Every structure is written in structure tokens, then in C-alpha cells.
Give the backbone structure.
Amino acid sequence: MTGPDVKTGGPAVPGKAPSAGGEVVRIAASMTAVCAVGALILGGVYLATERYAEAARKSSEREAVTQMLGLDAHASVLEVSQYLSPDGESVVYRTASEGALPGRELVFSLDGALLKKGSAPLAPAPRELRPLGRVFAARRDGVPAGFLVEGEARGYKNRIRFFVALDTAWTVQGVRVVEHEEDPGLGAEVATPWFQGQYAGRTFADVGALDVTKDPIPEDWRGALRDLGRLSPTAWQEAHGAERERERKHPIYAVTGATISSRAITQGVRATILHFRKRWERIAPYLEPDAREASR
Amino acid sequence: MSEQPLLFTQRPPGAISLLKNGIFGENPVFRLALSLCPAVAVTTTVANGIMLGVAVLLVQVLSSVTVALTRRWIHPRVRIPVYTIIIAVWVSAIDMVLAGFFPLLYAQVGLYVKLIVAFAIIISRLEVFASRMPLIPTFWDGLGMGLGFLFALMAIGTFREVLGNGTLLGFRIVPEKPLLFFALPAGGFFSIALLMAFFNVLERRMSGGKNVAPSTGGSHGQAA
């Protein structure tokens, strides 16, 4: 580099070796001060925004629940979180508070025996519990109306988090990818309506054997899937019922150039549904709304 | 920029020439060849390119201005780590504000915002320009570089989206995907090379057939 050196810039000034003690202390003090100021600013921004960020996450989740399960204002939703205990020996289920009632806590051993049953304090779950996913169980007029299950898959680059909507007969109502880091334009296409729409309508038995194919997706079926969100369910059934019947048992068509991502989600959806059904049948009897009222 | 590189002139240049310098003369991608990896990673579509470009523009201007204001307190021997922290603070702050107040936008751009901490172009402008020029020119330099990056990403994104995906801004303009190769990472590098060559030819034509040396930007050899 030629040209006049300008005040502070440029590489370490030649001919001026770092003087021992004082210089090092000044450098350390300068770095510490910068880090402290940066940390203070970020702490302030975090405090100012976290409330809103949390509310935004909650409301988008709430929206996903009502939308994917097709709920109306009369439905109530119970959120159940599943955790692994710190010693890895038991599974803990906690429900969010229901109105004025505190949430419940159920502890099961790994082979499915109930160890403990009680109410969970309103505070968030203790940190040492490892989260294993959540379920939103909807009820309408006191009757179960469907479930939204949170699932995870190992994608091409990072974990893919998704929601699976099920009706009470365990038939898939929809799949929605809510968090992923797949490549834009390739793996990221698993988050598009045409790919996600392929899961809807698969029965529990079909899901158990669900596979992925690299065959190109027929254009009429792709078009039909794109219409999924645009038309009302009845209008869609009327317009595309024939395609749906034809494709009902067909493997999932992979995204071109992103077979790994497509397969990851398919396997994730399958595992999520199989596990969920087993667990739910275990815990459901303890979560009936009136069960606790009666035991009071 | 046929004369001497900007940064060695004694008097800081004016706003217009700084903006032109960022977009054409020292375009971050096509001239300085900086931040190519993120440029390749996100430019499969124009929309992606625009979002990352706007995010970089914001962080570049804010970081440049911050350095111009605080440089007298920054110890010269640790200036690079300090610049990194300044960039990281701005990126994290923007990330949190977006997540809190613009959740819909955040769902679209959140992925890109976090990438910016490690962008060579931003830290190189801090080292080359913001650390030695007055506040006002620093602002224009940051804006020019940000616009230059945005322009480059849009150009690459357009090229790759049309050829690789057959769409533009999501609208299908060619049936099917003509050359999927261009949507893949390797195709991204080819796209950048082709566009770089194209802009070199264009510049040579405009400067009347004179030979334009590539990457004469003062920053390239020094930082990044």
C-alpha cells in the first residue's frame, strides 16, 4: 500500500514496537469497554423487544393451529409440552394453564407407567427438562376436534421444524414447515404449498408406509395442490377430487434437486404421527377437562 | 474510476461520485469480488437478492457511521475486532427489532439478516473508508456500497431465477426450468463470472476501448 498513512488507520505502525505492560493493558481495557457497551446496547434492545417477539411467535402459532385445524371461535385449544427428565429415565408432560386453573403435570416412565400426577405451577418449565415437542389439542363443544403436533426432522443443512395437523381419526389434515434453513430455490421448496399439500388426506395406515419418489409430479396434481389454500375445502374437493383419488396412495413427489430434504420431512412426519398416537393414547385419559374437577 | 483510487485523494469526494463509485467503479461483487459466498447462496431468486441487499445496505450504513463517529476512541491495534463487534451489535439489534415488531417480514428475511455479521464487504469499508474519512462522506460511501451490493444481487438473482427456475419475481415467464444448473451453487459462481465479464465489457465500451483493469479497488488487497 502506497500513499500517505492516515491518522489511525493502516497496519500496525512500523518502527514502533508494542511497549510491554501499559500498551497491553490499554488494549485490553479498550476491548473490554467496547464489549461492555455492545452488551449493554444488546441487552437493552432485547429487553425492549423480547415481549413483542414472544407475542408474535405465540400469535403466529395460534394462527397456525386455528387455520390448519379449521377451528372457529367456539373451539378451545390445550397446549401440552413433552419433556425428557434430566436423568433420561422418565417423560414429563406439562399442560399450559387452562383459564384460571393451573396446568397439569404427568410423569411417565419410559415403558409407559404413570409415575406421578399433579398440577404444574404457572411458571415456565424448569430448564433442566429437555423439550421433546408440543401438541395443541383442540376441542369443540367438549369433544376432541383435532390435533396439531410439532415435529422435527434432520434436513439437508439443519433441523426442520414442522406442524402436522391430524383429525381425531389420525388422518393427516395438513403439514406446514415453520422453521428450516434449507437452500433457497432448492430444499426451501419443501415449505411451498404444493409440496406440503401432498400429505393432506393420508390415513394413519398409509402414513406408516409413506415413501418418496423422484418421479416428476404430474402437472395437474401440482396445480391442484397449489389451489389448496386458495379454494375452500368443498370447492377444492369438487374441482380436484379426481386427482386426489388418483394420488391418494402414491408416494410423495420429491422436490427436484432436493431429495434429501423431501425424504427428511416425509420420514419426520411419519415418525411424528406414529409416536404421537402412542403417547396421546397414554396421556389422554388424564387430560379430560372434567377429570380434575371431579377429583377436587 | 480511471483516476487514482478514491481513498488516497486528500479531499473527501462528493456524494454523487461516492454513490457512483459504490455501484459501478468499486462494485462490491463485480469489482471488489467480496462477499461472493453469500451472494451465491441467496441469489437463486430476485426476491431473495433484494431482501439480503436491503439488509446489507442498512447494516453497512449504520456500521460505517458508527465507526466514523467513534473511531477516535478505538485503539488502532484492535480496530478489526472492534469493527466486528460494531457490525455484530447492529445485526443483532436489527434482528431483534424485526422479530419483535415486524414478524411477517422477519419470517422472510430472518434467515439472511444473521448472515451479515461475517460479510467481508462491510468490514472492508469500515477499515478502508469509515476509519479515516469524515462522517458525511462515510455515510455516502456506505450508502453507495450498499446500493452497489443490492444492484449486484438483483442482477445475479434475475439471471439465475430466469435461467434456473424459469420465473421472475415468482411469476413464470418460461415454461419449466430451462437450466436448473444456474439455480445450484456452482451455477451461481458461473453467473457471477458471466455478469462480471459483461460489466467489464460494458465499462470498456463506455470508456472508449481503454483497457479496464479488474478489481482496482483500494480495499481488495487490504482487508477482507
